[in-house]
Amino acid sequence: MVTSTQRYAITSSECADEVASEYFNWLSTAWGPLVQVRISAQAIIIQLLRQPAIRMKAIATHQSIVGFEIVGGFLARPGGRMTFSRSGDAVQVNLEEFKPRLPLWIYRFTHGPVHEWTMARFGRHLQKRNAP
């Protein structure tokens, strides 16, 4: 299982669900045509080359926290979750108990670094949006 936590300073008044929406909208454009995000009332599907790489469903929504259960995809086994929380002047994004389909030794050299790089880029995106 994989756990990842990012914390971003944020000066806007956005709540957790607004930051989560911003993340999924940004992700749809950040990788060009390689990655697309499909959002419906039932699911969020992150597609890689038009194939469902990670499927999630909403599990908790509150002004200060929003969460998504990972239910599958060709990069993810069911289980684990992604949460966005807002506290004071920071937003925290957690990937908890993620179960990659790839063996961990392959994940650490492929999907893992791509996830870290993507989250760092999202942090820079939030900084630019929140710059005075």
> What is the distance, rounded to the nearest whole angstrom, between the alpha carbons of the first and last residues?
39 Å
Following the backbone from N to C, one meets helices and strands in this order, namely EHEEEEEEHH
CATH superfamily: START domain
Biggest sheet record = 7 strands, antiparallel
Query: Structural class, from helix and strand content?
Result: alpha+beta
Q: Write down the domain tally.
A: 1
Strand order of the largest sheet: 1-7-6-5-4-3-2
The backbone outline, from C-alpha atoms, is globular
| Rg measurement, Å | 14 Å
Q: What portion of residues is helical?
A: 25-40%
Remind me, CATH topology?
Alpha-D-Glucose-1,6-Bisphosphate, Chain A, domain 4
